Every structure is written in structure tokens, then in C-alpha cells.
Amino acid sequence: MAAELMDGKRVAAETLEHARRRVGRIVDRTGVTPCLATVLVGADPASVTYTQMKRKRCEGVGMKSMKVELPEATTTEQLVAEIVRLGKDDLVHGILLQHPSPPHVDERAAFEAIPVAKDVDGVTFGSFAHMWFGEAGFASCTPGGIVRLLDAYSVEIEGRHAVVIGRSAILGKPMAGLLLDRNATVTICHSRTQHLGGVVQQADIVVAAVGKPRFVQGDWIKPGAVVMDAGYNEGNVGDVDFDAAAEVASLITPVPGGVGPMTIATLIDQTVTGAARQLGVDAAA
Ligand code: NAP
User: Fold this and answer.
1) In terms of pTM, does the model score above 0.90?
2) Which of 10, 95, 168, 285 has the most neighbouring CB atoms within 10 Å?
């Protein structure tokens, strides 16, 4: 294997340690403990596990977490009302609506009920617009985590050609926006892209966000490129053919242990930032 592995677990642990120190300063200066509310509708086992993990990470950095669990039959109106209530609660600094919601729920309406200042998961139109216009705001957590990982490995983004495969609202599109904001030349690919392998071969930075196991082939990777695999498929397999890509890339994320841990670390870090802003303190030092 030629490529160096990008250790998302280590960088996430460092991010969380930094968050823990900032939480300590906020508590010292305001007497208020930052709090993330996690909202879960129904009892989908994967969603239950994800929200538990997020609450555990909150507590690990000294934050509070507020568990809001609503029955499967909750209507859009009831969910929106609950989120509006949390939005008005001064003791809640971040709101995370675990998705997917049950199919009868208008998830967009529920997301849009989250005040942008508390949208630490970066899911609202407002957060997306802030990101796209290069204004301070909260990034969608997986793409935000990918940029943090690139920075942790001192990968130069400016002027490089980044190819993002996937254009979902939570991953591909915000990923492209964040890379553009860092002055990369960005190409977004999707299911109708022609000659995908040839496009990816031009990339200095490849982000795979396709949702198909081992989809990105090793011979699509330009020698020395940086490969970020956001994919998480059954059997702990990413969207990149890891063994083949690692032969030619300079840096590559493993699955698991690459992009995955950065997502929650970004959520926690953004919640601390949200709390500091809402409480009017500078928790940086
Ligand atoms: P998604 O909503 O299903 O989007 C997949 C994207 O891939 C779509 O834009 C689709 O194009 C594109 N695509 C599908 N087939 C393609 C093909 N043959 N060639 C080129 N593009 C193709 O998935 P997502 O939510 O963005 O997630 C993507 C992956 O990231 C999944 O493996 C998911 O598990 C993982 N993920 C990881 C985390 C994390 O925390 N690590 C978080 C979220 C997601 P069209 O738009 O044309 O259909």
C-alpha cells in the first residue's frame, strides 16, 4: 500500500478534546452547560443507536443532552411544535432531528422549524445558504468533518481539482460548497455523469458519496490523489475499492475509522460553537 491512512478516529478524538476544553470555559464563564437536544421519531434501531452515540459524545465532553423521543405516529404538526418549543428554550443550544423520519412526516417542514442559530447539524435551508455564500454558519456534519480531516493532514485545497461523486443535500452538495469556499476547483458527479472514471482521473481530491460498495475503482485514481470515502455500506465497506485505490493515492480514509468518526465530532464541536454564540462568550481561549 502506497497511501498514508487518514486516521479519523484520532482526529475526532482531538476535536472532542478541544470541544471539552471549550465547554469547560463556557461553564466557568456563564454557569450554563451547553446542551444538545436529540429528537427521534419512532424507534428505528439504527436511529436509536445513532442518537445514543451522539448523546454519549455530548456527555463525554461535559455537555448536557436532552432526549426527546416521540412515537412513530407523531404528526408533522406535533413534531414541528416540539422543535419550535426546543428552539425557544434558552437552555437548549443545538437541535438534532435524527433522520430519516417516518415517511408520513414532512421532514423538510420539521428541519425548517429548527432556528438557524441552533441548527448544529447543518440541515436547514438557512445553514445551506450561509455555507454556500461563505458566511459563518453550521456545515452539514459529514462534509464539515471531511474538511476538518483534510486540514488535519495539511492537504492543500486551494487551487486543487476536487471531484465529488454524489449530490445529495446532506453530503455531495454541501461538500462541493465547502470545497469551493476553500478555493478548490470543484466538479460534482452523479448518476447521469458520463465517463465518470475519466472525470475522477483528473482529481487531486476525490470525495466518494455514492452509497454503493467499492464503487470507485483504483484505476480511476490519479497517482498521488487524496481519497475521502464517505460511504458506509453493509459489512463496513466504503464507496471506494480501498485496496486498489490505496496503491495509487497519497492519502486515503479507511472505512470504518476515517470519515465516520468525524461526523459526530463535527456535530459536537458545532454545538459548542452554537452555545458560545448564544451565550455571548468567546470560548476559544
Ligand atoms: P444518496 O442520497 O443516496 O446519494 C447518492 C448520490 O450518489 C446521488 O447523488 C446519486 O446520483 C449518486 N450516484 C448513485 N449512483 C451513481 C453512479 N452510478 N454514478 C455516479 N453517481 C451515482 O446518499 P448520501 O446520503 O449522500 O450518502 C452517500 C454515502 O455516504 C452512503 O454510503 C452513506 O451511507 C454515506 N454516509 C455516511 C455518513 C457518515 O457519517 N459517514 C453520513 C451520511 C451518509 P443522483 O443524484 O443522480 O441520483
Assistant:
1) yes
2) 95
